Amino acid sequence: MDKKVWLITVAAVVVIVALTIVGSSTAVAAEYGSADTWTCVYIDLSEQWLMVEQGGDVVFEAPVVTGTAGTSRATPTGTYSIYSKETCQVLRGTDYASYVDYWMPFNGGIGIHDATWLSDDEFAYGGETYLWNGSHGCINMRYDDAATVYSLVSVGDSVFVTE
After folding, report:
1. Which residue range(s) make up the domain with 146?
2. How many separate helices (H) and strands (E) can be counted in the chain?
3. pTM value?
4. Lower Cβ count inside 10 Å, N or C end of the chain?
5. Residue 128 belongs to a domain with what CATH number?
């Protein structure tokens, strides 16, 4: 099975299980909007790829650079929700301070954001940059790609991070 189809299938199962637990698609629709506007973000670590799906259709795809593999900085897999959307932020760690225009956190200090300090060439390494020069766990994107994702997602949208 194609990996993108598999990711969408897994997400559909998660939604069905959530609907079963909640007990009603009406309750979920009232909370999150109709199925036609349901938005999910899929991040594939092995492919270094991000997809945004709305209402069952992939509406945007882009390459990313994730956390440095095999280190404490690796991006953790799991199911999360975007809990904030912010602009003009400085992301800080013990060894860095980086300004970003688009910040969409989903797991503590880990989120999706623009990474203007990376040249476009660094995104052309066939998706292997994260093996030696990845982020501190975040999902780094080209500026315009991060702006597009920012315009498509809302607080509460699901984020699925897989290997």
Report:
1. 3-162
2. 4, 9
3. 0.78
4. N
5. 2.40.440.10
